Amino acid sequence: MIEAVGLTKRYGDKTAVYNLSFQVRPGSVTGFLGPNGSGKSTTMRMILGLDNPSSGQVTIGGYPYRKLPNAPRQVGALLDAKAVHGGRHARNHLLCLAQLSGIPARRVDEVLGVVGLQDVAKKRSKGFSLGMGQRLGIAAALLGDPQVLLFDEPVNGLDPEGILWVRNLMKSLAAEGRTVFVSSHLMSEMAVTADHLIVIGRGQLLADMSVRDFISHNSADFARVRTPETEPQQREKLTAALTEAGGQVLPEQDGALRVMGLPLPRISDLAHSADVRLWELSPHQASLEEAYMRMTQGAVDYRSTIDQRAGLQQELPPGAMPPPQMPVPGQGQPGWYAPPPPQQGGQPFAMPQAQPPAGPPAGPYGAPAGPGAGEPNPYAQPAGAAPAAAPAQPSSAAPDLTKPEEAR
Amino acid sequence: MSTPQHQMQQQAAPAPNWQGTPGTSYTSPIPITRTHLGHALASEWTKIKSVRSTMWTLGVFVLLVVGIGFLVAAQTTNEDFTDVPYTIPAFFGLILGQICLITLGVLVVSSEYGTGMIRTTFTASPQRYRVLTAKLMIFFVVAFVVSALSIGVVGLITSGMHGGSSDNEWGGTVLMGALYVSLLGVLALAVGSMLRHSAGAITTMLGVVLVPAILPAFLLMSESMRTIGEKMMEYNAPNALARIFQLDNDNGNGSSQLVLLVGVTAAAIAGAYALLEKRDV
């Protein structure tokens, strides 16, 4: 059981973690997600008593880490795969940690076997690949056979076999009743590993819910319905019928309809009773990764921009047209990953709440937005604050979250 | 210990969920040992002997002290040792060799900061003072034993080559010489713990050793600085070693210089402990 209450960490005037409160419970894998620089590792270090919080506190089993009796036997951690003295054998590295924690030396050989490094136990860790380093770090975390385990990006650098192994290891550790807290920025990995998710962005809590809830609340499921293009009146007829039945219907650019709030058989039945033929009726489920991207897009600190190559291009001959700039996914257009769920307008992402009135669509899917500066982050508002139905104005968007950051 | 338990009960109350199912708590079959300084000492001993930098710095130290000592002993005659101890050839090697011990002292702690290993160490032992204590003790014992053996070997070689020409007692110079260079290494360890940076700490220590040996040449030129210059000349590290080995036996046996070094080292260690507990790792 890890419990953080109002955890805040400032480095000078930069706030790395702000007012973070969460609980990590035993018996399940808890994923800790956030973009680069969102404060995951800082939080992990504060849990382990390595960094002192500026305010707030974090406890493990009721104790701050540095007051925990027999700490290495209760908590194991992998913080950084490269945090070993490269000149030391893998076995000696683990041995000195075991001796420090009062763990018998034969346990070292056990964990070397568990992570599959027994053949390189006498090799200096300088020559280890990143994946081998991760395995060594996991071995160090498992050394004390602890009740609470923390892993910071454990699958970085692992091969597919290793990723599968880590995934199963986490699950089996949790199944034994341990508390497993895993940070990652790989949503897809967390979707299959974790039972519970804690999502942070810019050091603040964005979501704290089970994976199942996260999926149901944050992925925008819809059905795509296409009527014969030759008969536009059929399309209007169907739209009216579906709206009457309680569905939300939005036209797509290519003439199809995006229908939300109605199951597929019901759409088919309605179309049949309205005497409309369908050319397409297909289910679409936004991936969890997409939902995560959408949730964190306003909290990304390090965003790539389009490479302008300013001044480096050759002069075009007079009269020639410059080649059209095709937008690249994810570059310089924050809206790319985030087809805003049309029925939600500017709805904050996190917790389930009352449906807002359906606003106008925030924009066509994937349309190039501005260069990103000042883009509102509709998801970063504190959960529960009722947003404006219309998309938030860029200047007034999300004042609460960004305040501690803007102050720097 | 009553306060944390009280806290635990307080915090458990609003969150009954996690304790709800009694089967969800894991207990390790490995018996739990209450850790103490002995564990940290064993760990630091494993650490110091399992890296090559230890072998390199100590190897070079032994080579310098014994090698230069042997060369000096070979170049001297029996008459040179009539009123000086047989260990005096070790002095010339120690002047260079002390830098090896300083380097090792710094590396013992700063290499952990440089690699990030310190986070793993302090996770395994949240009692940071215990780790630093173990480092100081293990390093001091290793440095003292190695330097005492090296100086002793030089004394034996010299007395073997120029035997019988003097009945000067030289056992004390072995211990005091070894103590002086080992304390310099311990000072380096404390500085390394405060600065956390190998190059920075080694440079600082070289300054501590060399600047008081060089600066008096300039300070003595000025009338107002003369006393400071003279003190520096008297207490700098090479001169202290010269006193210990009775290079000029009119000026005592270097015990006041040794006392000064003990004081400086104690202050640095106190600073290292104070910073260790407060700072983020």
From TrEMBL, chain A:
Bias (Low complexity) ranges: 344-353, 364-399
- Biased segments, Pro residues type: 354-363
Q: Where is this region: Disordered?
A: 314-408
**Lineage: superkingdom:** Bacteria
By its UniProt entry, which SMART domains does this protein fall under? AAA
- Keywords, comma-separated and alphabetical: ATP-binding, Nucleotide-binding, Transport
InterPro entries according to UniProt: AAA+_ATPase, ABC_transporter-like_ATP-bd, P-loop_NTPase
The residues forming a coiled coil are none
- Domain ABC transporter stretches: 2-227
UniProt-recorded Gene Ontology molecular function terms: ATP binding
Q: Does the keyword ATP-binding apply?
A: yes
The entry assigns this protein to a family as follows:
Belongs to the ABC transporter superfamily.
State what protein this is by name: ABC transporter ATP-binding protein
Organism from which the protein derives: Streptomyces phaeochromogenes
What is the organism lineage in this UniProt record? Answer: Bacteria, Bacillati, Actinomycetota, Actinomycetes, Kitasatosporales
